[in-house]
Amino acid sequence: MPNESDDNPLSQEEKAILAAFANLGVPAEQSVPTDVIFARAARIPGFLPGSAPWIWESAFISLQVRGYVEPGMDPFSAISWQLTPDGYELIEKEFSR
C-alpha cells in the first residue's frame, strides 16, 4: 500500500476522496455517488474540493489504478465510485475516525 514515503504519494485530492469514504463509513463495494463524495470532502478540515474538475477526475482514475476504488454500480447515480477491499483496508489504517 502506498504511503507518504512512496515514490508516488497520494495527492491532496486522492487523500480527500479516501477521507470522504472513511468519513461516510461505507464498506468496500458499496457505491457512493460522486456528488456525495465531493460534499463530504468539502466538510473535512484541510480538504477543499475547489480545484479544476479534471484534477478530481484524475484523482479518481489514479485511485482506480492503485486498486483503491472502482466505478460503482448505483443505478440512481450517473457517476458513482466504490472502495475495493484494498481501499477499505487503507482507509481503516490511514483515515480511521
Given helix and strand content, the structural type is mainly alpha
Number of helices: 4
The overall average pLDDT, rounded, is: 84
Low-confidence region ranges: 1-5
Estimate the global geometry from the Cα principal axes: globular
Q: How would you write the strand order of the largest sheet?
A: 1-3-2
Number of strands: 3
Strand content: 5-15%
Distance between the termini: 19 Å
Radius of gyration: 12 Å
Order of helices and strands: HEHHEEH
Largest sheet: 3 strands, antiparallel
The level of helicity is: 40-55%
Describe the structure.
About 45% of the residues lie in helices and about 10% in strands. The radius of gyration is 12 Å and the shape is globular. About 30% of the residues are buried. The two termini are about 20 Å apart. Residues about 1-5 have low confidence and may be disordered. Strands 1-3-2 form a three-stranded antiparallel β-sheet. A hairpin with an 8-residue loop joins strand 2 (about 70) and strand 3. It has about 100 residues and is mainly alpha-helical. The protein has four helices and three strands. It has helices at about 10-25, 35-40, 55-65, 85-95, and strands spanning about 30-35, 70, 80-85.
